[in-house]
Design brief:
Elements lengths: L58 H17 L7 H14 L12 E5 L6 E4 L3 E5 H6 L3 H16 L2 H8 L7 H4 L13 H7 L13 H18 L5 H20 L15 H12 L9 H8 L3 E2 L7 E3 L2 E4 L4 E4 L4 E5 L4 E5 L2 E9 L4 H12 L12 E6 L2 E12 L2 E11 L4 E10 L7 H6 L1 E2 L2 H5 L4 E7 L6 H5 L8 H8 L13 E6 L1
Parallel strand pairs: 1-3
Antiparallel strand pairs: 2-3, 4-16, 5-6, 6-7, 7-15, 8-9, 9-10, 10-14, 11-12, 12-13, 13-14, 16-17
GO cellular component, one term: membrane
GO molecular function, one term: metalloendopeptidase activity
Organism: Novosphingobium colocasiae
């Protein structure tokens, strides 16, 4: 898939207490990472394009896509509605019909997802998706068309079926897992158990495409761009923006090379950018529709949606559910539709929740059971201790487990919020080091109505450059406390040596 920092994989959900409750961020999510799909040496880097003879959307594809669609909407924060979404749908349908999978624009359902991660994907049946965050990173309509065309190309080339065949149709993935892919974000040193425990929809992949398949999808996307009259070089520029965004996020987290940007099966960003430019032709021409694109995406929510909770540095606040907590020093957080993931050099954790129909003791034991890898003895805590955190009834358990890099401690720390609702952290670290999470466990607290009301979303603001404006003066208006200039440059596809002209449209992020 054509993605930035981290993005997606479908996961199985196991009930905690009873049925999982979706409240924007919380519920425990457990996925099985297919080791068999870590690499695909069978595909040729010179695979032949199938754009000339794709298989039309079948009735079976339509039925399966229609069944998967509402599940995907739930997984990725729902669909954005309004004029911005209508515009994305129009562009997506126009580029998708170039594939030959369908004869009419109405054969394709194109959705703008309310997700703060850089992501796009497509599934058989004519369903195409792009997140608002990835859309905000783009700088013209041709880039949007290129991203969506790339994803449609995966479907046209039947890559999902080929990956499924390579995985020997592993039944644990289910229908969705066999057609979705992503880029790995995580610390491999934590071992296979850590991959098992911390595989959220927005963080860890269950299945990924091979290098050759990604390159073929790039090429198909370029072909569709040309057919639609767009400048095919847009595929290269959007890939470059994704690579720069990845690098910036890694820099801000202080993780540099520890967060794989494109995973082992993806070509490195630089070579992919060069290859796309070569395929398009350095002197290619076509429509960009830059100003139209920027004016049509103006006002998009940027980053976290308050309805799903807000990450601000080491602090997480959920104004709707009225609670907040802080990650330990040296850790960073990513808010997904399924859970908040907390990552650092020395461990990983997730915050999620579910229905509490019994005691916290039974809730915690069920959470440990959900973490147990398939076919292995159930993970159980040595004991469960009661506690009180900022007036909230709580309990916790610790289990010593064997990871690929040695013994590790898994902790489940749960809170009874009343009304049959519980929340909990699941944390993993090297054996004997679980104390690094104590400050986080103790930080969870309820917030007042006034505190909740003070939480405001960031949004994309498209502004016109005025005489006297500079890159630095515009960057100073970015609604961030750090890396204002770096964020502004990446967001607009600019460099420190770029020049601005009066009347030019640029993007800034405001509250």
């Amino acid at each position: 898939m054509l993605m930035g920092q981290a993005t997606m994989g479908m996961h199985m959900k196991r009930a905690i207490g009873s049925r999982l409750v979706q409240v924007g961020l919380p519920f425990i999510a457990v996925a099985v990472v297919l080791q068999a799909c870590a690499a695909d040496g069978t595909a040729s880097a010179k695979s032949k394009s199938v754009a000339s003879a794709p298989r039309a959307i079948s009735a079976t594809d339509k039925a399966e896509g229609a069944k998967a669609h509402p599940q995907l909407l739930a997984e990725f924060g729902g669909a954005v509605t309004g004029p911005q979404a209508s515009y994305v749908t129009s562009v997506g349908q126009n580029i998708a019909v170039q594939s030959g999978l369908g004869n009419a624009r109405s054969d394709f359902t194109v959705t703008l997802l309310n997700s703060p991660v850089n992501n796009a994907f497509a599934i058989p049946g004519g369903y195409v998706y792009v997140t608002r965050q990835l859309t905000a990173l783009m700088n013209n309509e041709a880039e949007l068309a290129g991203v969506l065309g790339h994803e449609v190309g995966h479907v046209a080339a039947r890559h999902a079926a080929k990956r499924e065949s390579a995985a020997k149709r592993n039944q644990v993935l289910g229908a969705l897992g066999s057609i979705l892919s992503g880029v790995l974000l995580g610390n491999n040193e934590l071992g296979q158990l850590g991959q098992k425990v911390f595989s959220t929809g927005s963080q860890l992949l269950t299945l990924k495409y091979s290098r050759a398949q990604e390159e073929e999808a790039d090429n198909l996307g370029i072909t569709y761009l040309k057919r639609a009259g767009y400048d095919p070089r847009a595929m290269s520029t959007v890939l470059e923006s994704l690579a720069r965004q990845n690098a910036l996020e890694a820099q801000l987290r202080g993780t540099s090379n520890q967060v794989p940007e494109w995973a082992s099966t993806h070509p490195d960003p630089a070579s992919r950018v060069r290859a796309a430019m070569t395929r398009a032709g350095a002197n290619a021409t076509g429509t960009l529709n830059r100003d139209t694109f920027l004016s049509r995406i103006d006002g998009l929510v940027y980053g976290d949606d308050p309805k799903q909770g807000i990450v601000d540095g080491r602090n997480f606040t959920h104004p709707v559910l009225r609670f907040a907590f802080s990650a330990p020093d040296g850790f960073f957080m990513v808010n997904g539709s399924s859970a908040v993931t907390i990552s650092g050099q020395s461990g990983k954790a997730q915050f999620s929740g579910g229905k509490l129909t019994g005691t916290l003791d039974s809730y915690i034991r069920a959470a440990f059971a959900a973490l147990t890898p398939s076919g292995q003895a159930q993970i159980t805590p040595s004991s469960i201790e009661s506690a009180s955190v900022n007036g909230i009834p709580a309990a916790y358990g610790v289990a010593r487990v064997q990871g690929s890099s040695g013994q590790m401690d898994a902790v489940v720390f749960a809170y009874d919020f009343g009304g049959g609702q519980a929340y909990h952290f699941v944390a993993l670290t090297q054996a004997g080091n679980a104390g690094i999470y104590n400050s986080m466990f103790k930080s969870l607290h309820r917030i007042s109505a006034s505190e909740a009301g003070s939480v405001k979303p960031r949004q994309l603001d498209v502004v016109t450059v005025k005489s006297g404006d500079t890159i630095q003066s515009l960057a100073n208006r970015m609604a961030f406390s750090d890396a204002k200039l770096e964020r502004f440059l990446v967001l607009n596809g600019l460099t420190s040596t770029s020049t601005l002209k009066a009347g030019q449209l640029v993007k800034i992020v405001t509250y």
